[in-house]
Design a protein that fits this description.
Elements: H1 3-8, H2 10-20, H3 26-32, H4 36-47, H5 51-63
């Protein structure tokens, strides 16, 4: 995930992230603000997946943008 690109479009992407990963809170997304490592950690925590799987999901999401 290109963190610079994500940071620039964060407000637009936050809604899409929330739609895909509904268990993420608004606070999670606010704190993440484009930080893919933090986001992967929160996906791991909320969904009980391995960190590698969370990163894979984020990468897949990024490719669909």
């Amino acid at each position: 995930m290109n963190d610079d690109r994500i940071k620039g479009q964060w407000k637009q992407l936050a809604g899409k992230l929330k739609a895909k990963w509904g268990k993420l809170t608004d606070d999670d997304l606010k704190i993440a603000e484009g930080n893919s490592e933090y986001l992967a950690g929160k996906i791991q925590e909320r969904y009980g997946v391995a960190k590698d799987e969370a990163k894979r999901q984020i990468d897949e999401f990024d490719r669909t943008l």
